[in-house]
Design brief:
mainly alpha
Length: about 80
């Protein structure tokens, strides 16, 4: 992936990044090469519920530091996020 794309993404607001992530997820899910990938009705409902929380500002967000700490504690994996 080119550095310029990553630099442009880093300039986006939090909501724009979330919208981009959702767009990318939908693009990946719709790719014909992965026809065997299908979300269940329950998974789709959960994603819709979480998206609604984001849109109505009731979702809890974590900083990169908080997320990194949680991943380390749960899975023993070290990641470094700003």
């Amino acid at each position: 992936m080119s550095t310029s794309i990553l630099e442009e993404v880093s300039k986006l607001t939090r909501l724009e990044k979330i919208e981009l992530a959702r767009f990318l997820f939908e693009e990946i899910a719709n790719e014909e090469a992965d026809d065997d990938f299908e979300l269940s009705a329950e998974q789709k409902a959960e994603l819709d519920r979480r998206w609604a929380e984001i849109e109505d500002d009731s979702a809890d967000f974590f900083s990169g530091e908080e997320f990194s700490k949680e991943i380390k504690e749960r899975y023993g994996i070290t990641v470094s996020l700003p």
